Amino acid sequence: MPLDDYRITSGKRFNLASFDPGSKPMSQGDKETDLACITRLSESLDAQQDIFYAEHRRKILVVLQGMDTSGKDGTVRSVFRSFDPLGIRVVSFKAPTPDELARDYLWRVHVQVPKAGEIVLFNRSHYEDVLITRVHDWIDAQECERRYKQIRAFETLLTETGTTIVKCFLHISKDEQKARLEARLADPNKHWKFDPTDLAERKHWKAYMDAYESAIAATSTPECPWYIVPADSKTHRNLMVAEILAEVFRQIKPAYPPARADLAGIKVE
Question: Which InterPro entries does this entry report, sorted A to Z (predicted)?
Fold first, then answer.
């Protein structure tokens, strides 16, 4: 299974450089075929979500991380377009507010985790606190290691209380990011998507790749794996994330609650 090669459950032999952002391991070789496959998967996932929501017992947390322009928003729009809004929620983490900074860094994250029957998508996440903070030396190496340990404990708490965690690193190349930023500048209708700070962060590309590699290696476990999603192709990125979610549902096998015996014989007049 191609997914097995991109699922990271232990950081002992993990090397981010060994994954090509331009590869398309899940592709059928044709864009139109891949788009049709995404549509079928999305509709199938929608049906599974209905059962999952009715079951109202377990929870799913999807973490989307990646460099600017890697497609976190696009993944949400494409893969989850058919989902019932009653059972899904998207949380986008921005720079922490003064109120959030006055508390521990996981405080604002814990309050957003899914409740029973809910799927929550984190567009960025608690991992920002071991990525941008480390790249800019806002925390030192010792504090970063402490946070890795705290994140592992936090995710263990979630999994032991019924949450399935799926962590996707949308792996884009520096050249592809350049092309996407240039496309935003060239199209006035896309200027709203351009943030000058993206250029400042781009200068730290190597430091970010090192930070991602360290964070993924330190927090990958069999219960909370990371998936490396080659993301230079938007279509392939969406297809692979949809395949990952389909595999998650195959594993958890959601089922409608059993029929209630106390409802037998009730008549609606």
Answer: P-loop_NTPase, Polyphosphate_phosphotransfera, PPK2-rel_1, PPK2-related
Order of strands, edge to edge, in the sheet holding 59-66?
A: 7-8, 226-230, 163-171, 59-66, 119-123, 88-92
Q: How confident is the chain (269 residues) per 10-residue block, as mean pLDDT? A: 89 90 94 94 91 93 97 94 89 94 97 97 97 96 97 98 98 97 93 89 96 97 97 97 96 92 90
The residue ranges of every structural domain in the chain are 2-255
- How far is it, in rounded angstroms, from Cα 250 to Cα 244? 10
* C-alpha span between 69 and 54 (Å, rounded): 35
Instruction: Assign domain 2-255 to a CATH class.
Output: alpha beta
52 vs 110: CA distance, rounded Å: 22
Determine the Cα angle at 247 with ends 53 and 114, to 5°. 35
The answer to whether residues 100 and 112 touch, using CB atoms and an 8 Å cutoff, is: no
| pTM greater than the 0.85 cutoff | yes
Give 21: exposed, middle or buried? Use CB within 10 Å, 0-12, 13-18, 19+: buried
